[in-house]
């Protein structure tokens, strides 16, 4: 699925230690019945905006699609971290939080940026629990905030993070995923 849609309105909800989500009301391209038919759960979405010289982005997946009226659709989207809700069991010895975060992000092909001290070494086990809950527990032990900025998982000290909720003019791009 490839193309972009005109956005009627959008709301991105971003909070510390919670998954990003977005409600995006769009006018689909008029000449693209294929675009509408292929828009379904799991399709990647990139939402970008500029407001007061501040740029932002939401990267995620379509969760549900609802017709608002004959011209508009409401996309309920979940953030890039949604796959982290899979349940796993892991055991690690003589490891740091940075190594744990790196391993989990690599498993899901996610980028990450972290600022933990990394000096504390642990013998620790996960399981069975979701990788998201495991990351929350690991980062909480070191007093770190955990959230996504676009497609990058950020782990930073709490004093660097504020709750962020954005309402601004946006563009929605549905990347080409190879689905036809």
Helices and strands, with pairings:
Blueprint: E1 3-14, E2 21-27, H1 33-38, E3 44-51, E4 54-67, E5 73-79, E6 87-95, H2 97-107, E7 111-114, E8 122-130, H3 131-141, E9 144-149, E10 152-157, E11 164-166, E12 170-174
Parallel strand pairs: 7-10
Antiparallel strand pairs: 1-2, 1-11, 1-12, 2-5, 3-4, 3-12, 4-5, 6-8, 9-10
Helix pairs in contact: 2-3
Task: Kindly describe this structure.
With 180 residues, the chain is of the alpha+beta class. 16% of the residues lie in helices and 50% in strands. The chain has helices spanning 33-38, 97-107, 131-141, and strands spanning 3-14, 21-27, 44-51, 54-67, 73-79, 87-95, 111-114, 122-130, 144-149, 152-157, 164-166, 170-174. It has a 6-stranded antiparallel barrel. A 3-stranded mixed beta sheet has the order 7-10-9, with helices on one face. Helix 2 packs antiparallel against helix 3. The longest helix is centred in the middle third of the chain and has 11 residues, at 97-107. The chain is elongated and about 55 Å long. The model is unreliable at 162-171 (pLDDT under 50).
Describe this structure in a few short sentences.
The chain is α+β, with helices and mostly antiparallel strands. The protein has helices at residues 33-38, 97-107, 131-141, and strands at residues 3-14, 21-27, 44-51, 54-67, 73-79, 87-95, 111-114, 122-130, 144-149, 152-157, 164-166, 170-174. It is elongated and about 55 Å long.
């Amino acid at each position: 699925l490839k193309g972009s849609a005109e956005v009627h309105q959008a709301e991105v909800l971003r909070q510390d230690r919670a998954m990003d989500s977005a409600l995006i009301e769009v006018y689909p391209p008029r000449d693209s019945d294929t675009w509408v038919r292929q828009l379904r759960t799991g399709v990647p979405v990139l939402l970008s905006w500029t407001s007061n010289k501040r740029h932002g982005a939401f990267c995620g997946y379509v969760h549900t699609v609802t017709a608002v009226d004959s011209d508009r659709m409401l996309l309920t989207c979940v953030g890039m971290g949604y796959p982290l809700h899979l349940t796993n069991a892991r055991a690690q010895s003589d490891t740091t939080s940075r190594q744990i975060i790196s391993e989990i992000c690599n498993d899901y092909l996610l980028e990450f940026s972290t600022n933990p001290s990394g000096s504390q070494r642990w013998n620790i086990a996960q399981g069975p629990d979701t990788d998201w809950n495991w990351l929350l527990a690991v980062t909480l032990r070191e007093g770190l905030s955990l959230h996504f900025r676009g497609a990058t998982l950020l782990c930073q000290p709490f004093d660097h993070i504020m709750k962020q909720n954005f309402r601004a003019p946006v563009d929605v791009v549905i990347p080409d995923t190879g689905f036809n």
